[in-house]
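Lab notebook page, bench 4
Experiment: in silico fold of construct C2
Operator: M.H.
Input chain length: 185 residues
Purpose: comparison with the prior construct
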Amino acid sequence: MPVEMHSQGQDRCVLTCTECKQRVETGWHCPGCEGYDLCINCYNTKGHTHEMVKVGLGPDEEAEEGDQGGNQGERRFRNPLESLRQNIQGCILSLVHACQCRNANCWLKSCLKMKRVVLHTKRCQRKTNGSCPRCKQLIALCCYHARHCQENPCPVPFCLIIKRKIREQRLRLRQQRIGNRLPQG
């Protein structure tokens, strides 16, 4: 997964380098390869054939790292929000794949991880009171997914329920706006 789901509700992203298995807060992600992330050291020494995205660094920290990466066509997101958006999108893609995949030996590294997270959330007793950080993260990811999901039925857990709640909330807001425009008499 581009961003590990088990970052336990921290405000930071945690990557696991595909090459050296080191867990780092900053590194490079390949949007073209499923779950392919590199720490800065492996990126600088080993490189990668595809365009990679720098994640986890703000503009000040990025300037300190220098321009040592030797890959062609690399993109750097100086805006941390863009980096976060890319990470969330990668996690959503992993979630959708895992929910549709029926292959127990899937070649995608993130598939089995995401299947375990989904299974945990289905069985977890603490999710109902919001005390499980792993469940909170999956449900938040499902909310991001549901905002743009057009599938009916959708295999992503909680998606249909979340879409229904979003529709109800929009309807209530419209009714409130209409009610505010009516003359009081």
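Observations: Helices lie at 40-46, 59-65, 80-100, 109-123, 133-148, 159-181. The first helix runs from residue 40 to 46.
Next step: discuss at group meeting.
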